Amino acid sequence: MKKGTKLGLLALASVLTLSVTMAAPAPAASTCAKRTTFTMLGTIKIEIQDQFLAAVKDYNASQSCYTLKDIPGATGQTTFLQQITPMYAAHNAPTITYTLQEIPDMADKVIDWKNQPLTKLVSPDLLTAANINGKQVGIPSTTEAFGLVYNKAVLDKAGIDPSKIKTRTDLETAFKTLKAAGLNAVHFSDIWWSLGAHFTNEYFTNAATTHEGRLKILDQMSNGTKDLTTDPVWNNYIATFDLLKKYNDTAPNTQDSEYDSAVADMASGNTGFWFMGNWAEPNLLQAAPTSSFGLMPLPLSTDPKAYGNDSISVGAPGYFMVDKTDATPAQQKGAIDFLTWLYTSTKGQHHVADPAGQNGAGGMGFIPVYSGFKVAPATFMSKNVAAYVAAHKTLDWINTYFPAGGQNLYGASGQKYMADQLTPAAYAAELEAAWKGSVKTWRGAKA
Predict the structure, then answer these.
(1) Distance spanning both ends of the chain, measured CA to CA
(2) DSSP for 36-75?
(3) Within the chain, which residue ranges are assigned CATH 3.40.190.10?
(4) Residue 209: phi, psi to the nearest 5?
(5) Per-residue model confidence as pLDDT tens digits over 334-380
(6) Model pTM?
(7) DSSP for 146-185?
(8) Residue 139 — φ and ψ, nearest 5°?
(9) How many CB atoms lie within 10 A of CB 57?
(10) CATH dotted code for 9-143+317-373
């Protein structure tokens, strides 16, 4: 899907420690003859919609040249391409779009960021994900991570040290300890995107110890030559899936509507773990402002020395792209100005890195990936993630290379398995069938 190598561990660690001495791009002139209006589809993530829109409001008020308007994105299982394709057909495309797997599909519709000053402030390795045939079609928003989110107070109350959980066996012991203390062990969300992208990544990222090895697994899935049930890593993945199902504190809900209830569940102080990512921290802190929430690995194997047991999945969740098909030069300049303001101005940086507050207040809680940042991550989970990165305990976001829309299919199969509608063998067969014949976009093929 993207050319080049995935963000390496050393390079990723350097993203969090980039020098602050590089000069930031100059902001736009403070006055203009008239304002240019441009648009963006969606707000990065629904979880931080209020915080992002607060940044947009401040940007619009900060200067008199441009006005950014948000076009609400569709929710549920509507894919990015299903939303954007008719907009281009009507010659009414948004100026800014934000996506990940669909980057190759957008490459011929968007500007090349290569010579823009903002690209000089981010690690070249982090830019690779949106470099298509030498064209820099997008820039990253942040670095995110996923694994087991935990409520520190709940684990402390039960006497559980997350750093001591090295294996799947250790994890079950922790679950049993929480249950014995009258607490809920884990919330395992059956939302399609969580199961389809993040949870399946637990298999694909552990299936090989090198990036190329993982891409070869994708090749085999596309070729129809991969038998998942004979792969020991897959069997460990299923065993871990079954463990989370067994101790899940709620009945399966396949309507993709339980994210808010999961946040409330974790924030209540009654549940220890949640398979999710650090993007949930703003929501958790809005619900429980005085609490601390951490992130730790989800160990698949019972062998403490097994690859991946001690690491969290880390990567860029998405990239900003600027339209060149329908947008005017002035709108393109506005889009670049907004993103430059967001990542280089003091006000914008606070919107990016500050923890979220109540009712849309505060920032988005992002881990900064652009140099020149004067606002450091302040939350427990952000520092937690940074520590794993600094220790080189990170795993590929191999789900980044999934075919566009593929996670919808894998998520639907995961939901069936969650609800005991599939046997392990049938679940494997559904994933194999969904993958077979996929265009190898991860090898540079055009979808």
Answers:
(1) 9
(2) EEEEEES-S-GGGHHHHHHHHHHHHHH-SSEEEEEEPPP-
(3) 9-143+317-373, 144-314+395-441
(4) -95, 0
(5) 999 999 999 999 999 999 999 876 555 688 888 888 988 888 878 89
(6) 0.79
(7) EEEEEEHHHHHHHT--GGG--SHHHHHHHHHHHHHTT-EE
(8) -130, 145
(9) 12
(10) 3.40.190.10
